[in-house]
Amino acid sequence: MKIKFKKLVVSLSLVISTCLSFSQVEVGEVLVIYPYVGEYSVKDSLIKITDLLEVEGITAIREDGAEFEVVRFDLTILDSSKGYVLVGGGSANSKFTGKMRNLIKHLKKGDKLYVENIKVLNNVGKKIPVGGLSFRVI
What we know:
Helices cover 29% and strands 36% of the residues. The protein is an alpha+beta fold.
């Protein structure tokens, strides 16, 4: 009985180590997906009103250039002159909604724009979060 048990342990450890080595090969390097509003990304802290009015929504691009489908995001604006938050609500795709577009049209220099709760579809169809964006309007 002890001999069979030892063989079972050896067999399981061989299976586990084989599986782990395969998963390391398949996973490889992790590439980060960055959200964008037009040409603006997390590397930017300022955004021009004129540029913002020209874009239809947001995109998500991985470091290697692969684009991902944005399936939802929220927009929030901090009105600098009145000191309160305007909630643009959520979008169920990559495009700004009518309410969001209306808020964007009324932005003033100094306002803060937050694009949050961004989710994209990964290559197996699962919704994954990709972080958010924040800008001061100039």
